[in-house]
Each structure stands twice: as structure tokens, then as C-alpha cells.
Amino acid sequence: MIFDLLRNGFSIDVLMNLLARVFVVFCTLPIHEYAHALVATKLGDDTPRLKGRLTLAPLAHIDIMGAVMIFLVGFGYAKPVPVNPRRFKNPKAGMAITALAGPLSNLIMALFFMILSNGCSLIYSTNGAIVAQVSMIFFTFAAQINVSLAVFNLIPIPPLDGSRIANLLIPQKYYFKIMQYERYIILGIFALIVFGVLDRPLNFVSGLVVTLLSYIARLPFLPFI
Question: What is the pLDDT of residue 6?
Fold first, then answer.
């Protein structure tokens, strides 16, 4: 994102993309982490509440490096929500459901933003309101970033949410051995992203998800098209 701004200069698209990323860092990433905390609490673990993470307050969730990555490469993270699997009736299932809540919240938000974008597009096509056009661009970028975050977090590699879901299929002794190296693994993943190695597979999967959600988001507007 920052590289695009430096390379291409100012434009409405670049500005809306930048504002959408600011919005994601301060609004949708906290919702992602709050979803983890809420589901864990509902499943019987009060650790997120005791650690002050059962909140939508941005400062409780923002990780500086993770936020910077959102602006640099479009993928990033917030502070992981502390969870004690021993408090779940079924530790493996509880961790998987808690982990899934974050990416699922991103997909729900992406669908919501696509619906808003379609509404703004309809308004713009009707009366040519510039505000509607700018809002449409903003919501489109916000939706795309949320899809990217969901897809990225579902990679089954620690410490991403997908690894907690994959834990349902991996023997416990191997899972904990892998988790010991999660700091190094995530650095490796980001190196692959920065150098563009993961661009094609991540963009391919994100494109499929965007296509599906776009189809659903168009349904309420079919009578007006």
C-alpha cells in the first residue's frame, strides 16, 4: 500500500485504500479479536475477560508490527487473545471454534461492506453523487481487506487461527512441538509475503471468496438492477 502510494502518487483510489486500512486496524481487527474473546468466554473460559480482551477498545488489541504489515502488504494481525483450553469441556474443539470466530467475523464484515458498497453504487448510478462514489470505493477496499485477513488467518500454520483449527486433526504431541517455533514460523510467512511468494495462492483464494460474497451481496439489489 505505502509502496503503491510512493510509486503512483496521490489518487482517490489510493486515498480510500489507505483510509480503509486505517479503518480495518482500528475497527475491524478489534472486532476479530473480540470475536475470539467472546466465543472463548461463552465456551467457559474467562481468561480473555480477566486479561481485558473482552472489549472492542482498539488499544486493547492492536499490535504495532501487525498494524504496520496491514499497510505494507495488506495482511497483518493483532495481539493474540489469551485462552486457556483447559477451561473448555472439549479443549481441542473449544480452541478450534474460538479460532474460527475471528476469520468468520472478517467474512461477515466483508459481506456487510459489500452490501454497503452496492448500495452506494446504486445511489451513484441514480443521481451521480460524488460522496456515494467515494463511499463505494472505500467499502469495496474494506471488504477486500477483510477477506484477505480471513484467508490469511486460516492458513494452518502457527500462530495463525488456522493452526488451532488444524489441531483437531494433528496429534497433540506434534502440535505442541510445532507451536514451540511459532515465532520463527510467522516471521518466515511474512518474509514470503513481503517477497511475493505467497501472493498468487493467497490472491487466488481471496478472489474465490470475494466472488462468492459479491454474489450474495448483490441479491438484495436485484429488484433495482
Answer: 53
